[in-house]
Amino acid sequence: MMTDYTLIFELIGTVAFAISGASVGLRSRSDLFGVLALGIVTATGGGVIRDLVLGVIPPSGFTDPIYVITAAVSSAIVFAVAYLKSRHPSNLNVENWKQLLLVMDSIGLGIFTVVGVHSAISKYGTGNGFLCVFSGLVTGVGGGLLRDMMVDRLPDIFRKHVYAVASIIGAEVCLILCRLNLASFSIAAGAAVIVVVRVLAAHFQWNLPRIEQ
């Protein structure tokens, strides 16, 4: 039951991150292949890095095609919608599009972070808290990090609305609940915390201190 529950969350996260990655491809004026590649990398890159860290070889992204297929289809739909919208520029609502991207990116970050925590727990238990939280963090931000590097921009985790911090907070919540034998509740709770923190940070413009040049 827990495996099916996790798979559903993973697929939701895959769709959300694929939409986010494909949208970055559109903004960088990539062609169809570029949009698909960015969507797939964003949706699967974090999981691949996580599996390498945890010693799962080959990574699940290469052994189970459902994630790549889901990401590719989601990215293709984004491209098709954007193409049709480009024929009717008056129908484009940039602000609504930005809000959609924020929500999709937040959902993907939340789900993949807690899935990463559970991946570490299933292999090594809850004793090594640092490994569990790091696994969640790298699963949540790894795909976006690779995506931003591919389009030659400073990754969001280094500049935007406590992005990585939100992932760490949610990972800690997930881990604590698992240690309290509330594993079935930990995925939804951890992901929800991350989404709320991200949305609030974006709305109120919360950012970590930095030196302005």
TrEMBL record:
<keyword id="KW-1003">Cell membrane</keyword>
<protein>
    <submittedName>
        <fullName>Trimeric intracellular cation channel family protein</fullName>
    </submittedName>
</protein>
<feature type="transmembrane region" description="Helical">
    <location>
        <begin position="100"/>
        <end position="121"/>
    </location>
</feature>
<comment type="similarity">
    <text>Belongs to the UPF0126 family.</text>
</comment>
<feature type="transmembrane region" description="Helical">
    <location>
        <begin position="33"/>
        <end position="53"/>
    </location>
</feature>
<dbReference type="Pfam" id="PF03458">
    <property type="entry name" value="Gly_transporter"/>
</dbReference>
<keyword id="KW-1133">Transmembrane helix</keyword>
<feature type="domain" description="Glycine transporter">
    <location>
        <begin position="8"/>
        <end position="81"/>
    </location>
</feature>
<dbReference type="InterPro" id="IPR005115">
    <property type="entry name" value="Gly_transporter"/>
</dbReference>
<feature type="transmembrane region" description="Helical">
    <location>
        <begin position="65"/>
        <end position="84"/>
    </location>
</feature>
<keyword id="KW-0812">Transmembrane</keyword>
<feature type="transmembrane region" description="Helical">
    <location>
        <begin position="162"/>
        <end position="182"/>
    </location>
</feature>
<feature type="transmembrane region" description="Helical">
    <location>
        <begin position="6"/>
        <end position="26"/>
    </location>
</feature>
<feature type="domain" description="Glycine transporter">
    <location>
        <begin position="103"/>
        <end position="177"/>
    </location>
</feature>
<keyword id="KW-0472">Membrane</keyword>
<feature type="transmembrane region" description="Helical">
    <location>
        <begin position="188"/>
        <end position="208"/>
    </location>
</feature>
<dbReference type="GO" id="GO:0005886">
    <property type="term" value="C:plasma membrane"/>
</dbReference>
<feature type="transmembrane region" description="Helical">
    <location>
        <begin position="127"/>
        <end position="150"/>
    </location>
</feature>
